[in-house]
Design a protein that fits this description.
The complex is a heterodimer of chains A (182) and B (436).
Chain A: H1 2-10, H2 16-35, H3 39-56, H4 66-92, H5 118-125, H6 130-142, H7 146-153, H8 157-181
Helix pairs in contact in A: 2-3, 2-4, 3-4, 6-8, 7-8
Chain B: H1 6-17, H2 27-38, H3 45-62, H4 64-71, E1 89-90, E2 93-94, E3 103-105, H5 122-127, H6 130-144, H7 154-172, E4 183-185, E5 190-193, H8 202-231, E6 232-238, E7 241-242, E8 247-258, E9 263-278, E10 287-289, E11 294-317, E12 322-353, E13 360-374, E14 384-399, E15 403-414, E16 427-435
Antiparallel strand pairs in B: 1-2, 3-5, 4-5, 6-8, 6-16, 7-8, 7-16, 8-9, 9-11, 10-11, 11-12, 12-13, 12-14, 14-15, 15-16
The chains are: A mainly alpha (182), B alpha+beta (436).
Chain lengths: 182, 436
C-alpha cells in the first residue's frame, strides 16, 4: 500500500489520490470531528484538506524509508487538517470570546478505571467552550506547544495556558459527573 | 507537588492519538464530483488564461472603432464663455488668460505625456503631424496645471518653436483668423499665442485650437492606427521537430504584443504530434517469464501523443531582424497511443526417428520472435502540464512592408511534472512562421 503511494507520488500519478483518500479519510475525519460537532462541516474540512494535500503531495520529501514515510506522511496530512480546521473556525468566527469561569475544584487528578469510549469523550469535549476545546485538542492531542498555539489562534501564551488548565479541569468534572450518573 | 494528570487526560490523548473512523463508501466519489464543481477551472486555468490573451489580442480587430476612438484626442469646440476667473474655456475648462486678453498655453511639454514626444523621436514625428499633438498635450497640461507655469527646458523650446512656425505658416495661408499674431515667449518660459486685438473672443480662441486639432486629425489618426497595428502580430506557424527518436510535427496560431522596441510577449495555440520512446532499460522488470519454457522481454515502448500547446514567452529583439525568446508552455494531452514491443523466446523440443536405423533423436530449439501490441496504459492522456520550457532564436524577414516570415530554431524541454514522466519529450526543431 505505502509502496504504491510512494511510487505514485514519484510518478506524479493522479490515480494515487483515490488510494490516499480512501486510506486516510477516516483518520482525518477523526481529527476534524474533534473540532466540529457538525459532521458536514467536519467532512468539508477533510475534503479541503485533501485538496490542499493533493496539490502539494507530489513534492513530499521522504527518504524512501517505508516506516518513516508512513509516520511522516500521516502526520503531514494531520497537520494540514488541523490548520484547515483552524481556518474554518476563524472564518466562521465560532471561537467565542466569552469564556465561562470555572470554580477551582482543586482536584488535578482523576483516575480512569474503565475503558474510555470515543463517543463518550466526544460528548464531554463538546461541552467545553470552543476555544477551550480547541486549545485542549491542539496541546494534548496534536502535540503543539503553547507558543505554537498562541501563534495559530492569535492569543497570548498565558491565555493558552489558562484555557488549557480550564479545559482539563472542566473535563475532569464532567467525567466525574458522567461516572456518578452511570 | 502537582500530581501527574495522565490518568484521564493522558487516556483521552491516547484514545484520540490514532483514532480513525471507518471509511464510508462513496465519499471519494462525492469528493471527486464536488471538487470538479468547486474548481471547474483549476486544472484548465492556463488554458483559460491563454484564451483570454488571445481574446484580448483579437479585440483591436473585432472592435476597431472602439480602439480608435479611445486613442483619438478630442477637442470640443464649446464656445460658451465661462463664468470663472480668467475667461475662455476649452472643453469647459479654464484657459489661462492674461489681463490683456492673451492666451497663455503652458509650455508644450510640461506634462508627463510630453515624454511621448521626447527629443529622439521628435523630428520624425514632426512630419507625422504630431506637432499638433504637442499642442493638445499643452492644452491638457494647461487644464491640469493651469496655475503653475513650469520652467521651459530645451526640448520644450524646440516644441514651442516648431509649433509657432506651424502656426505662422498656417496664418500666412489665411487659415488663421485675421489680425492674430503668434509669437514665442521663450524668455518667460511660456509659449504665448497673442491675439492682436482685445476684441478676440473666446470663440476665436477655441477655433484656433479647433483648427490645430483638425489639422492634426488626419495624420494623428494614421499615426495611431499604424501604432496599434504595429503593436500586435498574428501569425501561422508550422514547426517540424525531432525528439531523440522520432520526427514530429506541430502547427498553430501565434500572436505577439510589442511591449517596447526591444521586448514583446508572445502566445498562441498549436497542435503537436509527438512521438517518443521510453527508455526501457530504466524501467524495472522489463523481462518476464511467461512459462517455464518461454520468456518475454520488453524491448521498447513507443508513444504517440497529440497535444495542445499554449506557449507564453518573452521575446527580446536584438535588432530588426534577429530575436530570441524564452518562456513556458501549457501542455494538454488530447490523445495518447502506446505500443509495447516484446521479444518472445520459446523453447521447443522436436523428436524425430531415423527411418533407416530407427534411432530416435531430440532437437531442442529456441524460437525468438518480436511482437508489437498496443498498451492499455495511457499515463498522459487527459492530463495538463506546465509543460515545457521553450527557448528559441529567430530571424525575421519583412516582406511587402506588411508581412513577416520568421524562421526560428527552437528547443522545448519538459519541466515540472512532465519532466518526471517516462517519455523523453525533449524536442527541438525549426519553426516557420508567417505573421501579419
Amino acid at each position: 500500500m505505502f509502496l504504491e503511494i510512494i511510487a505514485g507520488l514519484r510518478a506524479r500519478d493522479e490515480r494515487i489520490q483515490e488510494r490516499i483518500y480512501v486510506h486516510y479519510w477516516g483518520y482525518l475525519m477523526g481529527i476534524s470531528t474533534r473540532y466540529f460537532k457538525d459532521r458536514n462541516t467536519a467532512k468539508e474540512v477533510v475534503n479541503d484538506s485533501f485538496i490542499k494535500a493533493f496539490r502539494t503531495m507530489y513534492d513530499f520529501k521522504h527518504d524512501n524509508n517505508l516506516e518513516q514515510f508512513q509516520k511522516t506522511f500521516k502526520a503531514w496530512l494531520a497537520k494540514i487538517t488541523v490548520h484547515t480546521s483552524l481556518d474554518k473556525i476563524r472564518s466562521k468566527k465560532t471561537l467565542i470570546d466569552y469564556v465561562e469561569e470555572y470554580e477551582e475544584s482543586g482536584n488535578g487528578h482523576v483516575a480512569v478505571d474503565d475503558k474510555l469510549f470515543v463517543d463518550d469523550i466526544m460528548k464531554l469535549l463538546f461541552e467545553l467552550p470552543d476555544i477551550h476545546r480547541t486549545v485542549f485538542n491542539l496541546y494534548e492531542i496534536e502535540g503543539f506547544n503553547h507558543e505554537e498555539i498562541s501563534n495559530m489562534l492569535k492569543i497570548p501564551v498565558s491565555t493558552s495556558r489558562t484555557y488549557l488548565t480550564r479545559a482539563k479541569q472542566k473535563l475532569r468534572d464532567l467525567y466525574k459527573k458522567s461516572i456518578e450518573i452511570s | 507537588m502537582e500530581q501527574p494528570e495522565k490518568e484521564l487526560i493522558k487516556e483521552i490523548a491516547n484514545l484520540f492519538e490514532d483514532y480513525e473512523e471507518a471509511y464510508v463508501p462513496g465519499e471519494w466519489e462525492a469528493f471527486s464530483q464536488k471538487r470538479k464543481r468547486k474548481y471547474p477551472f483549476f486544472r484548465n486555468i492556463l488554458k483559460v488564461a491563454a484564451v483570454l490573451i488571445l481574446g484580448f489580442a483579437m479585440l483591436p480587430f473585432l472592435l476597431p472603432k472602439h480602439f480608435k476612438s479611445a486613442d483619438q484626442p478630442v477637442v470640443n469646440s464649446s464656445t460658451k464663455p465661462s463664468a470663472t476667473k480668467g475667461g475662455g474655456t476649452v472643453n469647459g475648462k479654464n484657459l489661462d488668460k492674461n489681463p490683456a486678453g492673451n492666451i497663455h498655453t503652458l509650455n508644450a511639454g510640461a506634462s508627463a505625456e510630453r515624454s511621448k514626444v521626447g527629443p529622439p523621436n521628435f523630428p520624425a514625428r514632426q512630419h507625422d503631424g504630431l506637432i499638433e499633438d504637442s499642442n493638445i498635450i499643452a492644452l491638457k497640461a494647461h487644464e491640469r496645471e493651469a496655475a503653475v507655469p513650469l520652467p521651459i527646458v530645451p526640448e520644450q523650446l524646440i516644441a514651442s518653436r516648431i509649433m509657432n512656425e506651424e502656426l505662422k505658416s498656417s496664418a500666412t495661408q489665411g487659415n488663421l483668423t485675421p489680425g492674430k499674431n503668434v509669437e514665442t515667449a521663450e524668455e518667460k518660459g511660456t509659449l504665448q499665442i497673442k491675439e492682436g486685438t482685445a476684441a478676440g473672443s473666446v470663440a476665436e480662441k477655441v477655433s484656433t485650437m479647433e483648427f490645430l486639432a483638425s489639422e492634426s486629425k488626419q495624420t494623428t489618426k494614421k499615426t495611431i492606427a499604424r501604432g496599434q497595428l504595429s503593436r500586435w502580430d498574428f501569425g501561422l506557424a508550422f514547426a517540424p521537430s525531432i525528439t531523440s527518436t522520432n520526427m514530429n510535427i506541430g502547427g498553430g496560431l501565434t500572436t505577439a504584443y510589442r511591449l517596447s522596441d526591444k521586448f514583446s510577449i508572445s502566445s498562441g495555440i498549436s497542435l503537436l504530434q509527438l512521438q517518443s520512446a521510453i527508455d526501457v532499460a530504466s524501467t524495472a522488470q522489463s523481462k518476464m517469464a511467461v512459462t517455464a519454457l518461454s520468456s518475454k522481454e520488453l524491448l521498447a515502448v513507443d508513444a504517440n501523443i497529440r497535444a495542445i500547446d499554449i506557449p507564453l514567452a518573452i521575446i527580446y529583439n536584438f535588432n530588426k531582424n534577429f530575436y530570441t525568446s524564452a518562456g513556458l508552455s501549457y501542455f494538454n494531452v488530447i490523445t495518447e497511443k502506446r505500443s509495447n514491443t516484446y521479444e518472445q523466446a520459446s523453447a521447443s523440443v522436436q523428436s524425430s526417428a531415423d527411418p533407416t536405423t530407427g534411432f530416435a533423436s531430440e532437437v531442442r530449439t529456441v524460437v525468438s520472435q518480436t511482437l508489437s501490441e498496443p498498451a492499455q496504459e495511457t499515463r498522459l492522456k487527459g492530463n495538463s502540464y506546465l509543460g515545457f520550457f521553450n527557448f528559441a532564436i529567430g530571424r525575421r524577414q519583412n516582406i511587402f512592408n506588411k508581412y513577416n516570415v520568421l524562421i526560428e530554431p527552437f528547443i522545448k524541454i519538459p519541466v515540472g511534472k512532465l519532466s518526471a514522466e517516462d517519455l523523453k519529450l525533449t524536442n527541438s526543431g525549426l519553426k516557420f512562421q508567417f505573421s501579419f
